[in-house]
Specification:
11 helices, six-stranded parallel sheet, alpha/beta, Rossmann fold
C-alpha cells in the first residue's frame, strides 16, 4: 500500500513537472518597446499578424524622458502580463530592453534595428562610433530634447514607406530627452538571456554595420532585412516572423 501510494505521488509529480515545462515553453506575451522619434502606432500591422497567430501583444509608449523612466514604464507593462514575456525593442527601445530584460519573467530579447549596448555604453557613444550618415537631428529651444527634422524624416527614417505614412510619422514623432540618450547601461540582459537581432540593411538612422557588430558581440540570432529604419512598418510580415520564431525558441 505504501509503495503504491509513493508511485501515485511520483506519477503526479512527474505529470505536474511535464505540465509546467510545457507551459514554460509557451511564450505568448509579446511586449514591444518602441524607439524614439516614432510612436507605437507604426507597429499595428506587425501586431495584427502576431495576434492572428495567437500572441498577446502590448506596446510600451515610454515617455523617453530618461532611461530609468522608460525602464519603469516597461516594467509596468510587464507587471500586467500573465506568464513569461518576450521583449522586443526598436532603435532606442533596444537600450530599454537591455536593462528591463533582466527580470526573471522575460524569456528573451528581440532587437529590431536597435541599439544593443554593453555595460557602461550609451546611445550617443554607440551612434558616434559608426555614424549612420546625415540624419538631421535638431534640438528643441530649451536644449533638453531632440527630434528629427520633419523635412527629411522620410528619407532618414522611413524611406521605404509610402510618403503619406512617413509624413504622418514625422508629424507624430516623440521627442527624446538628451538624458535618455546619454544614460549608461548597468547590466545588459543579453549576457544572460537569449537574443535575436534584425539588421535593417538600408538603415540610415543606425549604421547597419553597427547593428551587425552589436549583434555579433551579443551572440544574437541575426536576420537581415532590406529595409529602412522603419522596418517594423515597411516589412511587418518579416518582422513578425522573426518575433514568432524567437518566442518559440525562447521557451526551449
Amino acid at each position: 500500500m505504501h509503495k503504491r501510494f509513493l508511485s501515485v505521488v511520483a506519477l503526479g509529480l512527474a505529470a505536474s513537472t511535464m505540465a509546467f515545462t510545457a507551459q514554460a515553453a509557451e511564450i505568448k506575451n509579446i511586449v514591444i518597446v518602441r524607439g524614439a522619434l516614432a510612436d507605437g502606432s507604426g507597429w499595428r500591422k506587425t501586431t495584427e499578424i502576431l495576434e492572428k497567430h495567437g500572441f498577446k501583444v502590448t506596446i510600451v509608449q515610454e515617455p523617453i524622458t530618461s532611461l530609468a523612466d522608460d525602464v519603469a514604464a516597461t516594467n509596468r507593462v510587464l507587471d500586467l502580463q500573465i506568464g513569461p514575456s518576450l521583449l522586443v525593442g526598436h532603435s532606442y527601445g533596444g537600450m530599454v530592453i537591455t536593462e528591463a530584460g533582466n527580470r526573471p519573467d522575460v524569456a528573451g530579447l528581440v532587437y529590431v534595428a536597435a541599439f544593443q549596448p554593453d555595460k557602461g555604453e550609451n546611445l550617443i557613444g554607440l551612434a558616434s562610433s559608426k555614424p549612420a550618415g546625415s540624419m538631421n537631428i535638431r534640438e528643441t529651444k530649451d536644449g533638453q530634447y531632440l527630434y528629427l527634422d520633419p523635412a527629411t524624416f522620410a528619407a532618414d527614417f522611413a524611406a521605404d514607406l509610402p510618403r503619406s505614412e512617413a509624413d504622418f510619422m514625422a508629424k507624430s514623432q516623440v521627442f527624446a530627452a538628451k538624458a535618455a540618450f546619454t544614460a549608461k547601461i548597468d547590466d545588459p540582459a543579453w549576457r544572460s538571456k537569449k537574443s535575436w537581432s534584425i539588421v535593417a540593411s538600408d538603415d540610415r538612422s543606425i549604421n547597419p554595420e553597427l547593428e551587425r557588430d552589436m549583434a555579433k558581440r551579443a551572440g544574437s540570432d541575426v536576420t537581415e532585412i532590406k529595409a529602412s529604419h522603419a522596418v517594423f512598418a515597411s516589412q511587418p510580415e518579416k518582422v513578425a516572423a522573426v518575433i514568432e520564431k524567437a518566442a518559440k525558441d525562447a521557451g526551449k
